[in-house]
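Bug report

Summary: structure tokens for Protein p34 differ between web form and batch submission.
Environment: batch mode, default settings.
Steps: 1) Submit the sequence below via batch. 2) Compare with the web form result.

Sequence submitted:
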Amino acid sequence: MNKTTTIAVGSLFVGIIVLALKGVAYWLTGSVALLSDALESTVNVATAVAALIAIKVAEQPADDNHPYGHHKAEFFSAVLEGVMIIVAALLIMNEAYKGFLAPHPLDAPIEGLLVNGLATGINGAWCWVLISRGKRLRSPALVADGHHLLSDVVSSGGVAVGVLLAVVTGWAVLDPLLAGIVALNILWSGWKVTKQSLSGLMDEAVDADVLRRIREIIGTEATGALEAHDLRTRHAGKAIFIDFHLVVPGQMAVVDAHAICDRIETALKADVDAAIITIHVEPENKAKHSGVLVL
């Protein structure tokens, strides 16, 4: 089991523990806001399962039906997670509306807040693990899961404030009101996760810093060639696809042109993890005098 899969399995166990704790907090208090918090945690568990499945699919090697690999499976998981976050927000809004129409005093609020605070602390620690490790491992599914948990931590904090204010002031209506505000925050988080994941499905290019490094490496390692043009990049999960045209002198031997390509590929793979590189070699009459000029 690799690191990405191990973290995904950990997310599932953490999600189940946090869901159980938040369920207990709602059972103790009868708070609409804490029920809303627990509802969001059911989404955490479902999306953890989806992320685990997507990561396992993405790890499969290329085959006849998927010659470019299964890397994009993680983006589908992240899109699903964003959609489920939005659905959870709508469910919370519905509960908040019903609570607003019929507010009621809370039972054992302090005990419920302590249990919910423990769940929030666990979520906060784990979302840091997911986002930091997900970026390091270039796993869209883990990063999306981490941002989802981060929104859960923020909303849980808002819920705790609402419940505490409702208890201190005696205004029971504050409980569902805070639940509604939290739902709006979750809705925004779901939209951001979905938007980022869709950009990956649309073959978005690598960011400017990575592209700059790629151009520098080509320019440094392509000694003997004339230029490199039509450089294109895209990312799919962990993989980064790089392709470009390399112009060499027309009389250069194939073995020499191939040696230049090997040198460029070795340098790119050393700098860009999981790079998949395609180089199209062309004679000098195909030069465009643009892109990376080697000479």
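Above is the batch result. After comparison, the two runs are identical; trailing whitespace caused the diff. Residues 208-293 form a domain with the Alpha-Beta Plaits fold (CATH 3.30.70.1350). The first strand starts at residue 227 and ends at 236.
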